[in-house]
Amino acid sequence: MKSTFIISVIFGILLIVCGILVVKYPSSLNGFKSLNKDRFKSHEVQNAIKFISISLIIGGFVAISGSTVLSITNSMRYIFWILLSAILIPLLCYLYQYEKVLTEKEKVKFYFMVILTCFIIVGIVFYKASRSPALSVQEGFIDISCYRFYDHIPTENVSEVNLVQKLPSIKRRSNGLAVNETRLGYFETNKNEKIKLYSKSYRGPYIYISTKDNKYIYINYVDSTKTKQVFDNIKKQIKIFSVLKKYGAYHSAYPNYL
């Protein structure tokens, strides 16, 4: 969580630096440096460069201020949306301004590249979402992550870990992703309870984890045997840490990555 905050701040600083450098070295902008000298010095192009510079700086401040607020409020699970906003603000501004200075022939190539990039991004998202959940028990915490979703749960805050065969009846997706049999993120049940899924299959069993602060998490894999193995390991590691803590030997001697 701390490393995510640091990376977000560094990313924001880099955006601000890029915004400053764009004003100082405007010819370094991809696409603009190919313009002839008179066109480059035109009022329209210079305004476009300033607009892009400002958007980069705004994106940087969004990344820094947004990640700081999320860190203070312990809501780093929303960092994806902050960083996405920080990227999209300057990117969309750049594309809008760049499109204005192109000839009709250049616009065809430009639109093709934009569409191709969109397909690549969608492909990356599907690839990331298709990966199995990563789950580890280490130093008294259960860490679960898949795609942009993650949880960092102190073992002492866990009230129940069980293997269940079915999910509660789900009414709708509230802040999650559903692609084929993959379901990630937050969903609402028919009983109006909010649950979090790291599910890769419609078929059980599911690892069910509930916490003392009313979090309800369900995890499973395509291979049901792996789901059962991960469940057994979680139970084993939680027991180890509870014994270590009881006898004052609580340390990182028993890390376990599942």
Residues in β-strands, percent: 15-25%
Strand arrangement within the widest β-sheet reads 4-8-9-7-6-5
Distance between the termini: 20 Å
Helix and strand sequence:
HHHHHEEEEEEEEEHE
Structure, explained:
- By secondary structure, this protein is of the alpha+beta class.
- It contains six helices and ten strands, in the order αααααβββββββββαβ.
- The strands form two sheets. Strands 4-8-9-7-6-5 form a six-stranded mixed sheet. Strands 3-2-1-10 form a four-stranded antiparallel sheet, covered by helices on one side.
- The radius of gyration is 24 Å and the shape is elongated.
Short description:
This protein has 258 residues and is α+β, with helices and mostly antiparallel strands. It has helices at residues 2-24, 37-40, 43-72, 79-100, 104-130, 224-246, and strands spanning 134-138, 141-146, 149-154, 158-164, 170-179, 182-189, 194-199, 206-211, 216-220, 256-257.
Q: What topology does this entry show?
A:
Layout: H1 2-24, H2 37-40, H3 43-72, H4 79-100, H5 104-130, E1 134-138, E2 141-146, E3 149-154, E4 158-164, E5 170-179, E6 182-189, E7 194-199, E8 206-211, E9 216-220, H6 224-246, E10 256-257
Helix pairs in contact: 1-3, 3-4
What tags apply to this protein structure?
258 residues, 6-stranded mixed beta sheet
